[in-house]
């Protein structure tokens, strides 16, 4: 198909944008009311997620966040492709589209893909967090350590269910070799 004019190109772009909007959820998931961004920085181990093609099969995963001098957030995604394999990492960045709302980020781990990062639940002591995306097809439950109490995990799963996330797709991420192959784990 040849585009013969700028107006035609603009019209096609507008139609594609509208088609993309049609697939967006009617209402964004609710985020937490307040996040102390400096306190949030550091390492968060992935306890469970809705597996996606980039993370599937990875073990000992963790996200590490640090404030950059320019105000953005440096992101390092740590992982292994097996406990017998060397640790690896991907590097990306995050930023706040609205500096007054630290519960909603934009993140880019693999250029040029940008995604929303919504903090849906956060423990008052910043020990546990649940993060999702607007269309509800991705969800992460994370902790400062490599474990999370079962009652906290169940509470976060129920909060996600109440917000319309497909929690039946959640899988725990092995943080130790002993967890590989256990029921409910990737």
Automatic annotation (TrEMBL):
Q: What terms describe the molecular function in GO for this protein? A: lipid binding
Q: Enumerate the Gene Ontology biological process terms.
A: response to stress
Give the residue range of the signal peptide: 1-19
Q: Where is the lipid attached (N-palmitoyl cysteine)?
A: 21
What keywords does the record list, in alphabetical order? Cell outer membrane, Lipid-binding, Lipoprotein, Membrane, Palmitate, Signal
Domain named Lipocalin/cytosolic fatty-acid binding: residues: 35-175
The listed locations are: Cell outer membrane
- List, alphabetically, the GO terms of the cellular component aspect: cell outer membrane
Name of a matching Pfam family: Lipocalin_2
Show the PROSITE patterns listed in the entry. Answer: LIPOCALIN, PROKAR_LIPOPROTEIN
Main localisation, per the record? membrane
Q: Where is the lipid attached (S-diacylglycerol cysteine)?
A: 21
**Subunit structure, per the record?**
Homodimer.
Q: Return the similarity comment.
A: Belongs to the calycin superfamily. Lipocalin family.
Q: What is this protein for, i.e. what is its function?
A: Involved in the storage or transport of lipids necessary for membrane maintenance under stressful conditions. Displays a binding preference for lysophospholipids.
Q: What is this protein called?
A: Outer membrane lipoprotein Blc
């Amino acid at each position: 198909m040849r585009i013969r004019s700028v107006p035609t190109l603009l019209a096609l772009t507008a139609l594609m944008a509208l088609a993309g909007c049609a697939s967006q959820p009617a209402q964004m998931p609710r985020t937490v009311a307040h996040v102390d961004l400096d306190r949030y920085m550091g390492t968060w181990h992935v306890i469970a997620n809705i597996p996606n093609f980039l993370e599937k099969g990875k073990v000992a995963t963790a996200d590490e966040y640090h404030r950059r001098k320019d105000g953005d957030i440096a992101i390092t995604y740590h992982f292994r492709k097996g406990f017998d394999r060397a640790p690896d990492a991907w590097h990306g960045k995050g930023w706040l589209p609205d500096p007054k709302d630290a519960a909603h980020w934009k993140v880019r781990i693999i250029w040029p893909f940008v995604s929303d990062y919504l903090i849906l639940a956060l423990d008052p002591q910043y020990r546990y967090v649940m993060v999702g995306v607007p269309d509800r097809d991705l969800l992460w439950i994370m902790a400062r350590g490599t474990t999370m109490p079962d009652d906290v995990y169940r509470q976060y799963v129920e909060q996600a269910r109440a917000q319309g996330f497909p929690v039946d797709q959640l899988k725990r991420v092995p943080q130790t070799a002993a967890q590989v192959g256990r029921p409910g784990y990737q």
